[in-house]
Amino acid sequence: MAPAGGPRAKKGILERLDAGEVVIGDGSFLLTLEKRGYVKAGLWTPEAVIEHPDAVRQLHMEFLRAGSNVMQTFTFSASEEKMESKWEAVNAAACDLAREVADKGDALVAGGISQTSLYKHHKDEARIKKLFRLQLEVFARKNVDFLIAEYFEHVEEAVWAVEVLKEFGKPVAVTMCINPEGDKDNVTPGECAVKLGKAGANIIGVNCRFGPQTSIQTMKLMKEGLGAAGLKAHLIVQSLGFHTPDCGKGGYLDLPEYPFALEPRLVTRWDIQKYAREAYDLGVRYIGGCCGFEPYHIRAIAEELAPERGFLPPASEKHDSWGSGLSTHTKPWIRARAKREYWENLLPASGRPFCPSLSKPDN
Amino acid sequence: MAPAGGPRAKKGILERLDAGEVVIGDGSFLLTLEKRGYVKAGLWTPEAVIEHPDAVRQLHMEFLRAGSNVMQTFTFSASEEKMESKWEAVNAAACDLAREVADKGDALVAGGISQTSLYKHHKDEARIKKLFRLQLEVFARKNVDFLIAEYFEHVEEAVWAVEVLKEFGKPVAVTMCINPEGDKDNVTPGECAVKLGKAGANIIGVNCRFGPQTSIQTMKLMKEGLGAAGLKAHLIVQSLGFHTPDCGKGGYLDLPEYPFALEPRLVTRWDIQKYAREAYDLGVRYIGGCCGFEPYHIRAIAEELAPERGFLPPASEKHDSWGSGLSTHTKPWIRARAKREYWENLLPASGRPFCPSLSKPDN
Amino acid sequence: MAPAGGPRAKKGILERLDAGEVVIGDGSFLLTLEKRGYVKAGLWTPEAVIEHPDAVRQLHMEFLRAGSNVMQTFTFSASEEKMESKWEAVNAAACDLAREVADKGDALVAGGISQTSLYKHHKDEARIKKLFRLQLEVFARKNVDFLIAEYFEHVEEAVWAVEVLKEFGKPVAVTMCINPEGDKDNVTPGECAVKLGKAGANIIGVNCRFGPQTSIQTMKLMKEGLGAAGLKAHLIVQSLGFHTPDCGKGGYLDLPEYPFALEPRLVTRWDIQKYAREAYDLGVRYIGGCCGFEPYHIRAIAEELAPERGFLPPASEKHDSWGSGLSTHTKPWIRARAKREYWENLLPASGRPFCPSLSKPDN
Amino acid sequence: MAPAGGPRAKKGILERLDAGEVVIGDGSFLLTLEKRGYVKAGLWTPEAVIEHPDAVRQLHMEFLRAGSNVMQTFTFSASEEKMESKWEAVNAAACDLAREVADKGDALVAGGISQTSLYKHHKDEARIKKLFRLQLEVFARKNVDFLIAEYFEHVEEAVWAVEVLKEFGKPVAVTMCINPEGDKDNVTPGECAVKLGKAGANIIGVNCRFGPQTSIQTMKLMKEGLGAAGLKAHLIVQSLGFHTPDCGKGGYLDLPEYPFALEPRLVTRWDIQKYAREAYDLGVRYIGGCCGFEPYHIRAIAEELAPERGFLPPASEKHDSWGSGLSTHTKPWIRARAKREYWENLLPASGRPFCPSLSKPDN
């Protein structure tokens, strides 16, 4: 049931963040729907919103139930070659699906745009901004609640995206896919954050490409950069759901396991509770995930921060804190696992003794 | 569209197997729906069929789309303490959901029963059989296409289950959760298979608790046992979706990672293609998965055996064989991954250098 | 200083074992002297006793100092192709060196013969026994204290060796290089032990090719075999100094790391204390090492069993029990390592995250 | 045989380096003699030169035979608390032993001093220099060929050491035990090198504490620093013989495996050939080892650089290049290992599947 006054009466993203609330993002659509059979790896396009809307709706529902306060539209990323004739219909349908599910709970709809494939060929600001504006028009028409510019390797292009999105008059979040070494032009995370803040972004951070530990490190640097420049902005982190201590600046794309053998790197729910805690302690208040994040990972964020937020997400009706649901198991050695100390200290084995623990990135 | 004559005109399980066809099972409901937020670990009960039928239907749909020819009903396992008042309504609803989805494709509905929690306390054949019969009545009423007795640690109890299920007059499959060492009473896999065959089971094999490699080893022994006894039965394998070279007779339950830190052990699609090939070469024709098997793992079985079967599953419209969808990637080192040789030989890293590769089982 | 009455007054090997004393063997000559620059890998011959007697004497001294009660002669193994013209002079010199050092402490001299390269080509008992007898003559002339037939893959050939060595009238020990699966002709460890006992061997066990854990497992089976046959014999174990959980029947020769990259598998002193304790608890009283065992590993045997024996070896003047020598370190976190609990529970890292933990044996 | 004119006619260290020759250092005395039973871990003192001169002489001989051009005196390091009454006699005897062996081949004698334990308590330049001078007097009396100040964590103290050693009028080498992050006062490797060069050191580099890869990285920075400052100095690297990718600024002392469970980290001969090549390519011409380096590791340096130097070391008579000695093995799969490509590409397994690949440093 939507609260009286309807969904539009919900608090906006900035109202929440300004009030110090935690906003929980959602997780992986591309990789998760690839595993469910609705997205093609390599292409990574969202035509499922039209072809198989039930599958997309269901995933939105799972994230909502897990505690997400944001339904990101499952739309095309801004690569001209991908933007076939059907893109506009797909993106419009994606907005409707996100809105439909958001209205079933306490979630906002965010329209998202990404870096373009144009940028690496020529840095034609006008042409790239035009491409962003094209997408923005659909989001404006569908009246999303706020906007996210995400997955940028070059801060210059991210700034352009922010500038376009600001035209809409709604709050703008922006996330780069960089590690502590900085963006592809060697602009440090701190400098990136400052440039984005000056461009008017309301919420600044990182998403994708790097695992939880790396993402937290980058956020520290972004925060320091903003602080040193005397800029105020909310912080967002939407990490990869895989451990990537061995990847270089290119991120997990360059790891030999990408994209079809990443399983051994998949994070556990306990890894994510640690990540949520570290993000919170750092002052990040918009915490979500990216590729690899399944609904139970989002629930782990919501559970870790339940003491601060004062409530658990709906999906916690099927999950007892820190494995305590095992306390009635018939085997005593499994009952012994029903506690936080056990899971926090476990070093999980891969079951793959012929495999290494780290890889050398290609490239 | 159901073929003319309606779903009842589909070929039955034995018709298919007798004709030498491959039958593809489905995958994990409990663990998969736990990660989606609909099943509680520890309890592992299927009330979601009533509480969240869309979520259960969606998972059935994904397996169907991935190539499953069997929709197993997502019903209570036969533990008296779990069989609360609502079990009958849940099981009936589960049958309806399975049938609804099966009728959208070339799949049969299988009703399943499991070992009881009674058996370990007392071996009261009458009481246990009564419990099995109670469940069978619902399956009979809902007219499932065939029956599966699964997840048995003791062959004696499995024989009782087969005896009850045979009363229904439909084909009966039976799978034990044992490794090459044999059942909990040290009955070897070969002897187990023989006892089950003599009890009238039409399809015999293993499911759950052990990873692909171990399951194939056990199937070799079952096949040899049946052969030596001059018995004919079809073979079924529904392995765990985790690597478990280090687990003892108790299976993955005894591994310290169970059930909340199994991620690094999760099998890749390539592991499953290998498993499907080995199972096929061994003569197993009913090939599916158990806990840990996601839709894309089932699709991997269907893709591996597409040459023999002559067709691909619907979900392969979103998956190019052996990673060939990467052949148009902009980065040359990622294009280099677009081939079978690459994925077959990859030794995927865990990204966890502080973790071991094997664990010592508890107990 | 030799005790009054001279070295010949020392207690013999059987006197010691019959009295329940622990006899500590020595360690690796071939691999250790290869690393020191005096033995050629591949060839593995002992001409260093003539070319560089100081180097060989020094290694004998180190083992004596570490607690060895046996100086094995560093002589040619019985491969005809290796037995060049100089072999007799080398073997005689090896006996003199062993005796020289043995007389400086409480050690006996043991002459050793190994399996022949002939056996795999033809099983010509007469010819093989002649080759053994040829070597025995030197040992007899040099009056070694007892004899060891070691490194046999086929129990038949080991029996022939025992039969020849018994002609000398001194005690005979015999060790096979087999794992729990048995010898190359599938004779089980228990059956091997029985055949060797019936052939007159006084001390029976295993040496080389397999790591500590495997060797202890094989000894359990040998002991059970002897017990079941009602035979009495003393037990000997001289394990490899490398961890080999992944090797097949061919032993560590078949591991890809043999012989030039075995370093990561090298056992620690704590591994050897565990091995010594397990051997002792099993009833083995002649405990030593083979390839890979350095002097400090032998000292670890002597230290582990010091409570039972009532004394420490000379080299313990430079080694405090269980790392307690670290208790005065300036860094508190290193002082924290000065205890048994620390070293017993440590899981040492390889520092090689790009390497696997196990290998697949060649062959 | 010493060349005509006696050992003093040998070319000095600077003559060699100025001529572009490679000078090969020696390896580990403390850790190697600890394993042989003559040095006590924790204390790490060299009284063995008096107590067991044969053992020390033998190790010098092995390094000489492996190709070392430098015999470092096995003397006390400058910790006041260790400098008991006997230190002067020990150090004098150590000089005699080193000279005795050096005169048997083409090697020079180097007297060495190390950082003091005083420095961390108070930075009393006069008192510390007095302690250095005290030791220098013995080296001067024994007329060593050159001097090495080694194992310094603070460049300030290293500078003092160089200043004292320069008083003797012989060439001075200096090595710090730092990683690319710099010394304990955060002076970068480049700055350290410059300070040492300005203090008059003729040869500058690193030793101990960090494995080959880290040491090479630090040398790159030192070389860059010297180059940028327009300073000329010869370069020296004497790395640890263990892999330590996971250690922090404190080096391997802080790894949980130090000092009694470092075995799995031990470098292979192939690792050292790679290290020697990288050092050479970087322009380092004095290449040796530190803790963990056994004689065969030194031989690996000499073999790798034999093409440049034009000769092999004596110990290569017992070692065929790149495993080629295996080419006559009876087993074809072992013959297949007789080539460079095999060993260069091998990823050696630890045989320890329950252990991690990396550790977290203490402290």
UniProtKB/TrEMBL annotation, chains A, B, C, D:
GO cellular component entries: cytosol
GO molecular function ontology, one term from the record: betaine-homocysteine S-methyltransferase activity
Protein residues bound to Zn(2+): C208, C290, C291
Keyword Glycoprotein listed: no
Cofactor note (record): Binds 1 zinc ion per subunit.
InterPro entries, sorted: BHMT, BHMT-like, HCY_dom, HCY_dom_sf
GO biological process: one example: methylation
Listed name of the protein: Betaine--homocysteine S-methyltransferase 2
